[in-house]
Structure formats: C-alpha cells, structure tokens
Design goal:
The protein is α/β, with parallel strands linked by helices. Helix content is about 40%, strand content about 20%. It contains 14 helices and twelve strands. The strands form three sheets. It has a six-stranded mixed beta sheet with strand order 2-4-1-5-6-7, with helices on both faces. Strands 3-9-8 form a three-stranded mixed beta sheet. A hairpin with a 3-residue loop joins strand 8 (about 280-285) and strand 9 (about 290-300). Helix 1 runs parallel beside helix 8 and helix 4 packs antiparallel against helix 5 (about 155-175). The relative contact order is 0.14.
Length: about 375
C-alpha cells in the first residue's frame, strides 16, 4: 500500500505549481488567479529509497519497483467555503478521502502574484483553512446526529457508539480545536475512523518559500514551524519554484542543481519522509532475480498483515516469513550469505515487521 495526501491551501499559494513539480506532470493548470484548479488532480510519485537500489544490485534484480505515493491537488479554499463561498464545499468530500493533508502556505513575497486575502501571513492563512474544515466537520456531525437517532432508538449499539464519539468531537470543535486533538480509546478507534472527520486527519504544513530561502527557510516559515509545533504537527520547507525546475532535469543534472542551490535533497524527498513519519509508515522489501520491490505498511503490522499488502491470499494462508534485516543483507552480500551466517530468521504470525526487513512469505494455497 501507499498513502494518499491531499494538497490544500488558499488560492495562489503555489499548490498546483508544487503538484506539477512533485508529479512531474502538467496536468494541473498553474495560473495566477483563484480557482484555477476546478477538479481534483491526482498524481502518483515513486518514493525515493536508496536501500531498494542497493538490494536490487546485490540480488541482480531485472526490475526495481519502488513504493508509490499519491498526491491529490484539491481546489483552493477561501474564507466562507463551508457556507458556499468561492467554489463552496464541493471539494471537502475529496479531502475526506485522503489519509493526510499537506497544507501549503505562502511564505514568499512577490508583488506579481496576488494573494486572495491581500497580504502574506501564512499563520493567518492556516487559521482560515482550519476554521473552514472545522465548520465543515460540525455541519457533518449535526446532520449525522439527526439521521442516527432512529437507529439508536432501535437499540443499535454501533450507532450509539458513533453518536457518543460525535458529541465529544462536536464539543471539541465548538471549542475551536480540531478533531485530531481528541483522545480516542482503543475500542473506539474503528468507529472513530468511520466518521471520516476532516480535522481528524494528520496535517503537514508545507512552507512554500522563495528560491533563496529553500535551504534554511525564512521568517515566515519560522512562524509556521512555531505554530505547527504548538498544534502537535510538523512542517517542511519547500520552494515550489525550485521543485518545478528540478522536475525538468535528468538525474545527473538534478544532483548538480541541488548542490548549486546548497540543498542536500529535493523537497519531494523531505515531504515524503515527513509524510511517512506523520502516518507512522514503514517499508519492507521483497527481492529476487526478477524484481526488487518496496512495500509500504503502517508501523506495528504483523507479518501476515504485511503479506496481505502483496495479496490477500498471502495473509489468509500465511505460514511463516523468511526474514533478513537490511543491514545483514547488505553487509553479508545477499540472501544466501545471510542464510549461511544464520541471519535469516523464520518468523511466525506474531512477528512485528521492522522497517527495512527483507521478507519472503510462505503461505498455503
């Protein structure tokens, strides 16, 4: 599995430019006027992971298949969107479908690029979007509570559980706090996820800075970092303009350009890494002569669940996994050498997968 990240923000903050650059496409129209994105654009990118290339080289794999990450470019929201302003809340449903939210904030000064609010204040911009999303969640909760009443009267325990969670979330939202601030008991996690509240999703604040600030950030991005930390969220500094240039370069030229800009890595790499940390995702690998492949799973998955990421039959018929750590695989020089050194482990159904594990699953048909 990969994960789906929705790119949101006010109009003209660089969302579509960033989307185009990250996905190396021109499918999202980037223009200097509000609402240039009318339908949500979807793009997939390969997740960069040097470990996969190393494994493939050792295994002599004919194909290398990286993990994938999906970006959804969602139209710019404005103040009052939850009440129908601008393009209204028709795009809020698109946000409900993503795993996480990348909130792009304008952290650059440019008189040639208009700002829908007439000023550059990324923290205030974040408040506008957060408020609109909280209002949308409140509206959704109110409608659901009305519709669920009959089920509760009929003795539906699941409906009663959901209603209780919605009431707690409503109180939190009315206090001006997002749903992700709510403490959810383990027995309520499944019901909580089914509510699909927008503000329950993890948020990564993306500071779109000018090219000169791409390496260290600027005063605007520093304020965002402080704000994000106060909300228990993360932030990352990216220059959409630089990412747009990088996306047009061959790999060799790309590395030279990054060095010239005093950047250790592209913004895409930082964004993906931050997204993995935010969602507690890890990667395991499968490899052989035919292909080497990376698989993304949530941290804490046991071996059968990890096998299920390949195919549901693997999980259902799981017997064991032959597992080698990435460090042992590389240092010893491959599968056979790891076996000879006693570093291949036979793991059962209770084994919790570790990031970097190289796995081969045995299952019953």
């Amino acid at each position: 599995m990969g994960f789906k990240t929705g790119i949101v923000g006010l109009p003209n903050v660089g969302k579509s430019t960033l989307f185009n650059a990250l996905t190396r496409t021109a499918s999202a129209q980037a223009a200097n006027f509000p609402f240039c994105t009318i339908e949500p654009n979807v793009g997939e990118v390969s997740v960069p992971d040097p470990r996969l290339d190393t494994i493939a080289e050792i295994a002599g794999s004919a194909k290398v298949i990286p993990a994938r990450m999906t970006f959804v470019d969602i139209a710019g929201l404005v103040k009052g969107a939850s009440k129908g302003e601008g393009l209204g809340n028709q795009f809020l449903a698109n946000i409900r479908e993503v795993d996480a939210i990348a909130h792009v904030l304008r952290c650059f000064e440019d008189g040639d690029v208009t700002h829908v609010e007439g000023r550059v204040d990324p923290v205030a911009d974040a408040e506008i979007i957060e408020t609109e999303l909280m209002l949308a969640d409140l509206e959704s909760i109110d409608k659901r509570l009305v519709n669920i009443t009959k089920r509760i009267r009929g003795g539906d325990k699941e409906a009663a559980q959901q209603a209780e969670l919605m009431k707690k979330a409503k109180a939190l939202l009315e206090d001006g706090r997002p749903a992700r601030d709510m403490d959810v008991d383990s027995e309520d996690v499944r019901a909580w996820r089914m509510l699909q509240l927008i503000t329950a999703k993890p948020v990564l604040f993306v500071c779109n800075v000018d090219e000169e600030s791409a390496a260290e950030g600027n005063a605007h991005s520093a304020k965002v970092a402080e704000m994000a930390a106060g909300r228990g969220c993360s932030s990352v500094v990216i220059s959409a303009a630089i990412e747009a240039e990088i996306s047009q370069l061959a790999d060799d030229d790309r590395n030279a350009f990054l060095e010239e800009m005093n950047l250790e890595e592209a913004g895409l790499d930082r964004l993906i890494r931050s997204g993995y940390q935010m969602l507690d995702l890890i990667t395991y690998f499968t490899c052989g002569p035919k292909e080497a492949r990376a698989w993304t799973i949530p941290g804490g998955y046991r071996a059968p669940q990890a096998a299920g990421a390949i195919h549901t039959d693997f999980e259902k018929g799981f017997i064991r996994s032959e597992t080698i750590s990435h460090a042992d695989y590389v240092s010893l020089g491959g599968e056979q050498a790891a076996k000879d050194a006693g570093k291949m482990r036979l793991e059962g159904k209770e084994y919790t997968v570790i990031d970097g594990d190289i796995m081969h699953f045995r299952f019953a048909n």
